[in-house]
């Protein structure tokens, strides 16, 4: 399987498991939901729980986790009900 294809599947899984509603973000890599007033950091080192999650659950490397975070961040921040960042 192509590496990028696999990583994109990981991104899609995490996006599909993320619920945004009731003023909160529920994501599989978070230990508790975040308020929508919280701005997701653009760069992964600001959110180490994500790296830990994808490395443990999907067997990714640190570099692969950075790619997955960037893709995830772009998708989540382009959802109509969660656009806390300027484009």
Can you give the mean pLDDT?
A: 81
Strand order of the largest sheet: 1-2-3
How many strand units? Answer: 3
Shape: globular
Can you tell me the residue ranges where pLDDT is under 50 for at least 5 consecutive residues?
A: 83-87
**Termini gap:** 33 Å
Number of helices: 3
Q: Helix- and strand-based class?
A: mainly alpha
Major sheet description: 3 strands, antiparallel
Order of helices and strands: HEEEHH
Domain count, please report it: 1
Computed Rg: 12 Å
Q: What proportion of the residues is helical, as a percent range?
A: 40-55%
Strand share of the residues?
5-15%
Summarize the structure.
With 87 residues, the chain is mainly alpha-helical. It contains three helices and three strands, in the order H-E-E-E-H-H. Strand 1 and strand 2 form a beta hairpin.
Explained architecture:
By secondary structure, the chain is mainly alpha-helical. It has one domain. Helix content is 48%, strand content 9%. Strands 1-2-3 form a three-stranded antiparallel beta sheet. The longest helix is centred in the C-terminal third of the chain and has 16 residues, at 62-77. The chain is globular. 13% of the residues are buried. Mean pLDDT is 81; it is low at 83-87.
